[in-house]
Design brief:
The chain has about 150 residues and is an alpha+beta fold. It contains 2 helices and 10 strands; from the N terminus they run αβββββββαβββ.
Amino acid sequence: MISLAVVLIAILVVLVVFMNLWGQGATASTAITQNPWSLQSFSDPDGTTTPVLNGTTVNVTFTVNGKVTGYGGCNWYSGRYLIQETRIVTSSLTTTSLLCWDNATMFQEDRYYSMFQDADALRIRNNVMTFYGVDGKPLLTFVPARPGS
């Protein structure tokens, strides 16, 4: 009788662990579709964090059907994405072809598109979404976009 109870408890523990693992994967893959995201900062290879230029907006929206759209600061963009657990893969982005009003904004937009497509993993914690490169270092940090931004 005691051994049966131990076996049942062990099975229950295993089920709880596996259900939590599945739930975490679903939460990570659906959390990015809950709201549009606004870019807060870039991370340089040396670990320095660079905020988005004052007066510029860079944002992204992920749909549940695998489409990504957004605004890079000068141009609108779109593409496809796939998430598996914490890994993210994006297609090449299609962008409009407008010139930015200054070189700094143009440089920021080019850098954003490059880092966005280089992203290998993501993590959402405390309403902050961070993209990571293949080396595990942070690339881009997003926060939920305010309405109208």
